[in-house]
TrEMBL record:
Highest rank taxon of the organism: Bacteria
Source species: Saccharomonospora viridis
Gene3D superfamilies: 3.40.190.290, Winged helix-like DNA-binding domain superfamily/Winged helix DNA-binding domain
Protein keywords: DNA-binding, Transcription, Transcription regulation
Lineage of origin: Bacteria, Bacillati, Actinomycetota, Actinomycetes, Pseudonocardiales
Pfam family, one: LysR_substrate
Classification via InterPro entries: LysR_HTH_N, LysR_subst-bd, WH-like_DNA-bd_sf, WH_DNA-bd_sf
Domain HTH lysR-type, residue spans: 29-70
A single GO cellular-component term on record: protein-DNA complex
The name this protein goes by in its record: LysR family transcriptional regulator
Length: 305
């Protein structure tokens, strides 16, 4: 009968093979796994055989020209994958603690923010920190906030700001929203329009889960109507294209430097803006590089105040 002491010993013996099991899960080939880890194939075979003997059941079985993890092997491989990911995160933190300017930041943001805000922000930051590397993740507000909570991204630029208790945020800027209509629309020549005047219009919108969709639904509800939605998309450029084709109207930020062909932008009366914030997990410490980027954004906000 096993006990906690036996489990601890097995865990200690599993540690050197964790990386091997993790790569085997991905490759299903011992030769490729050994090459990926930079060790001789016989060494990988002996390591796997010793671990199987220690566990007491095979961890792999032949599968064509490769191998396949058994149920027990997959359980250990899944645990090894999580352990290696945690260790990689720790190594990253140590490296960035020594030299945060050479760190890596995973930044999530809404599609609409990729046209000017994000490129400008990263350009200015890299003038001061040229060795910082960024991975950029785009998606809907819902997806980005979920990724932030799960820890797969470090920081996120979203609108409207999140209200989750486990997320912190700071408002970076406000962005005015306009009514986008076809250039031959009855309202196209107006300088401004009240939202209630759009009650009978057909709307083109982003899908539920996008921040702009949430804002549009809320504004229409406050104006006393539920919008009729003809088309839903995942990209603002697609939404503008549908507007230009005469298929509906939409609430969107201004298209810089001027509206695309076929689209007129009309200011709302009263004007409507949305707050864009930088958000992070309040329950998980930021990596040094991500903390430096967050402080850069904080400084920008304080300068603009």
């Amino acid at each position: 009968m096993t006990n906690e002491f036996d489990d601890a010993r097995l865990t200690t013996e599993l540690a050197p093979a964790a990386a091997l099991l993790r790569v085997l899960k991905l490759t299903s080939n011992l030769t490729r796994a050994a090459a990926e880890l930079g060790i001789p194939q016989p060494t990988a075979s002996r390591r796997l055989a010793a671990l199987s003997a220690r566990v007491g059941v095979p961890l792999t079985v032949p599968d064509g020209r490769g191998i396949r993890l058994t149920r027990v092997g997959r359980l250990l491989a899944d645990a090894s994958e999580r352990a290696v990911d945690i260790l990689n995160h720790g190594v990253r933190q140590v490296r960035e603690e020594i030299d945060p300017d050479a760190g890596h930041v995973v930044l999530g943001f809404l599609h609409l923010l990729g046209r000017s805000l994000v490129p400008g922000l990263l350009r200015d930051f890299r003038l001061e920190h040229p060795r910082t590397r960024f991975s950029l993740v785009q998606g809907s507000r819902r997806d980005i906030v979920d990724d932030l909570a799960a820890g797969t991204i470090d920081l996120a630029l979203v609108a409207p700001p999140p209200h989750d208790e486990d997320l912190g945020s700071v408002v970076l800027t406000e962005q005015e929203l306009f009514v986008a209509v076809p250039t031959d629309h009855r309202l196209a020549d107006r300088s401004s329009v009240r939202l209630a005047e759009l009650a009978d219009e057909v709307f083109v919108m982003l899908e539920p889960g996008y921040g702009l969709r949430q804002i549009t639904d809320d504004l229409c509800a406050k104006a006393g109507f539920t919008p009729t939605v003809a088309f839903e998309g995942q990209e603002s450029d697609t939404v503008r294209g549908l507007v230009a084709a005469g298929l509906g109207v939409a609430l969107l930020p201004a298209f810089e430097p001027h509206p695309p062909p076929g689209v007129a932008e009309i200011r709302l009366d009263p004007p409507v803006t949305r707050k864009i914030s930088l958000a992070w997990s309040a329950d998980r410490p930021l990596s040094p590089a991500a903390a430096v980027f967050r402080e850069f954004v904080h400084d920008r906000v304080r300068t603009q105040a």
